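User: Can you write out an input/output pair for a complex, sequences first and structure second?

Assistant: Here is one pair. Inputs:
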Amino acid sequence: MPDTTYLYLIPFLPLAGFACLGLFGRRFPGQTSGWLATACIAVSAAMALSTAFGYFSDWGREGGGYASLQPIDVPWLVFTEELAIHLGVLLDPISVMMICIVTFVSLMVHVYSLGYLKGADRLPTYFAFLGLFTFSMLGLVMSSNLFQMYICWELVGVSSFLLIGFYFSSPAAVAASKKAFIVTRFADLGFLIGILILGEGADSYDFLTIIERLTATMDPNYAAVMAPTFLGFSVIGWGLGLVFIGGMGKSAMFPLHIWLPDAMEGPTPVSALIHAATMVVAGVFLVARLFPVYAVSVPELLSWVTLIGVFSALFAAVIACTQTDIKRVLAYSTMSQIGFMMFALGVSGYGGEAGLGYMASQFHLFTHALFKALLFLCAGAVIHAVHSNELKDMGGLRHRLPVTHACFLIACLAIAGLPPLAGFFSKEEILLAAYQRNHTVFYLALATSGLTAFYMFRLYFNIFWGQGGATGHHGHGEGGGFMMVPLVILSMGAIGAGFVPFGQFVTSDRLPLETHLHLGFSIAPVALGLAGIGLAALLYRKPSPLPGQIASRLGAVYETVYDRFYVDELYQFVTKQVVFRCIGAPAAWVDRHVVNGLVDFTGNTALKLSETVKGLQSGRVQQYALVFLCGLLLLGLLLMYIF
Amino acid sequence: MNLTAILAIPTLTLLAVLLVPRARQARWAALAGAVAQLAASLWLLVHFREARSSGDSGFLFQWQHAWYADWNIQFHLGVDGISVAMILLTALVVVAGVLVSWEEERMSKTFFGLLTLLGLGAYGFFCSLDLFAMFFFLEVAVVPKFLLIALWGSGRKEYSANKLAIMLMGASVAILMGIIALMYSAPGGQWSFDMLHIAGWEIPADTQTTIFALIFIGFGVFTALFPFHTWVPDGHSSAPTAGSMFLAGISMKLGGYGCLRAAVWLLPKGAVAYGDTIVVLSVVAILYGAFVTLMQTDLKYINAYSSVSHCGFVLLGIGMLTKAAVAGAVLQMVSHGLMTALFFAVIGMVYARTHTRQVSEMGGLMRAMPFIAVLMFLAGLSSLGLPGLSGFVAEMSIFVGGWERGTNFHQAATMLAAMSIVVTAVYVLRAIGATMMGPLRQEAHSSLTDAAWYERVAALVLTAGMLAMGLAPEWLNELVGPDAAAIADRLAAP
């Protein structure tokens, strides 16, 4: 293995960009800040790709598979002899894959932003935040320590908050940024407690140590934490379950998904990077990172992962069919696709053929990052052209935006799972893994896959076909080269990524897995995909009254779906009525009137008491004489009575 | 390193502030003294680390002088890692506090004199090894607070100043009673106020328990022990900016340090007996403080109630009685001191410009004052425990230390306390969102000026401390760790 201490530069270059732009950004003229940030991330991306090349082709190989290497490990905060936060780098197939995805998509987004935000206000701030995000995300995927991951987890959360709220004058953006942070923070509470439990159980926060110790089911040292306790789950089961809640929050799984659609208030390139390709898959990555422990020690927990994953996939796909904001449709589609990755992990086992779901999940994560980033960047180009997010303002744009049109079509075909585009391969593997484990999950996933094709092409036809939108054709044409080049590069990825022999590289046990394409098996998903596209073409290719009629025929059902099943309203109710009115307000009242009331009462009583007693000190001699005599008399009586 | 320097510099500063010929020169004298003291504190840190790494343990740089020989009262100075951390924190807060008061023109000699005196009291408190001297310095630090609020305050300042002074004086009475009771339990009638002697005494468990309650409650009032916290919101909100910063950054730390040094360390059996009670009260303070903060509309009240919640973490760490938790309590004191002082400084800057502290009357201020907005983000994010800033390090240390206790009770308490990270996020983001972000609420606010040089320097001093702790916490953890372990070991001993 070559000297890999340079690896720390991969996250630290974007951080240096952040620090530099954050401190001195205002002094940089024009686009310089953007160029600086792009240069930093370009070097990072080059280093990441060369690391991946070296790792997969040369020094990462070990005994027929790939090694887990830990080239950097520095103590950061030592709690006790065993428990300490270390900052380190863990290299294994998933982290190597992730650093490539993160740096590559981030580079594309940086380049795109140079065009998209040209001449915009506060450009240095924007690029500084992008750098902070990229640093945190890279730190997250390279983490060698559970607590290190939590640190980066929080930092990606705050970068996401800052970027969603980038247009800080807009109340919607401010509300969305707060919502994103608070909902994910709520989930992070689970993650944190899970960390405490796992750390206590394994006597370490180090990933490799945790995995080694907590999968040793025969080891008497760890028997206690694996024995069933509260509600039938072992201590480790509870820990992993709580950690999974953290993952659900970041990955927008039902019911913690409500922040993701609102997060679309941020600049569109940010949505492409954070809310499509990288940060939102952190939950999937987290489960994958600890997968041996899930699969070996608490396999029953994986059925929950499956359930939540498949439900989120279907739920989001249904909502996506009704939304009219282009970015919100894409947001629900992201949630749905992450659901696919999540349940693929849920139906997977550890090692060998049983680990197909794991490999499929990571494969889909990889391809999805490319085509979903592409979709968002295309949507950005469309929004750039028509100055609106609403489908009603679009239509017939295929002539005005030919490159965007072609790229968007490629991405739609990829996400719909049509061969030979990238999404086809990864989705096939997921469906196959589901079919081998659980038929119900398979059929639900199949239905979702059909819906995906439908809602994506509903979007496609609405934007690029039909008639011009309400705003007419006075907007811009296509953005400049900075915006087009990333689109074209990502399109090539969306076309070709499926041909990567993924099973050779990334598997649950890091040993190669032979995957075969079962042509017979592919017929149903592809046919359903084509049916979805056909239906969308029928309804939306030309202006037609049909969609409206169907919606009104469905009535309340359509309304419920359009209003996202009122989940947001439920949260609103809980926060406003329960947290604020039933906890906060009474607590504040008690503090002012009871706790503080007692303090004031003590003070006032002392005052009153002295008020009463002070009457005696009147200065009138007669009164003093009277009191004196009375006292004397009383004393005399007392003495007589006693003796 | 001679510890008397730590007391001599503020004393000379005080004299200089009072003797300079013109009132406007007082601020320069105060600033020069504060900076010199900061340099001395850093010098102390360097020497302390050197001495510790060469194998010295316990209290270093001891200096002793008989004060009142008949009662065996000594002027005994000495520092361990915890005191060094506290001295450093105080020095940072004093520099920042003097700077934010730069334009204070009313009776400025007295004002800066009182700030220096308060600092002097804190320095003496943190390096005293004699209980009597420690108590003396505690009182030295209380009186200036009353005057600062009553003379330079705003709002219901007389009420707040009275309440603060009376509650803290009441607390002092409890402490004094505890100290006297401790003297009467001296073995063989050998009176000594010297903590190094007292720590070696064999005191019966029930005596320890009684005295512990007195001393702990006394110091607890200083650090907002529930339900004796009500002086905090009123006191903070009525105090001038530097007064609030000193209250949160220094005064509340006197309490935490006193609890640790005079109660837990000297009376380990008492601490073990009351540990769980402390845990319960601190968890109540953490959550209750956080929920009350949610409902506040005045920026100073928001920060004051959040202090109740954050100081609950200090007491929680102490009550957990493990090394990591006790170290976490000290880290939390440092962290809370820095971030709350910064928050109050920012509130002062905003108030000086907008003349309001009501959240609903602000909005979109980031456009006009980006520097102040960044500071508010930093203080707020540290408050909600963002990694990279100071709060995270302290809270995690307390959580890990609490969880380590292993019992269901302590783990449940840790979980409940951890819930505050969500509530904190809600109130911090609401406050920042409503004041700095969003559309401009008042047209007049578009022409406000950003921070002046002295405000920038003040904020940078505190921010530097926060970052030094948040980015590379191990130096601080190493500084306080061995002494936290020494305290925790005494608790574990049968």
